[in-house]
Amino acid sequence: MGKHRINNIFDQITTDENLMSAYRKARRNKRMSYATLKFTEDLGGNLLKLQAEIRDGSYTPGQFRTFKIYEPKERVIRAPPFRDRVAQHALINVVGSYLMHGFYYHSYACVKGKGGHLASDILARKYHELYSLWGGEVWVLKADIHHYFDSIDHGVLKAQLRRIIKDKGVLRLCDLYIDNNGKDVPVGIPVGNLTSQIFANVYLTDLDRYLKEQLRVPYMYRYMDDFVCLFRTRAEAEQCLAQAEIFLRERLKLELNPKTRIYKILHGVDFVGYRHYPDHKRVRKDSIERMNRRIRRYRMRGDMTTQQLLASFTSWSGHAGHADSAHLIQTMTQKVISVISERMI
Question: Looking at the whole model, is its pTM more than 0.70?
Answer without folding.
Answer: yes
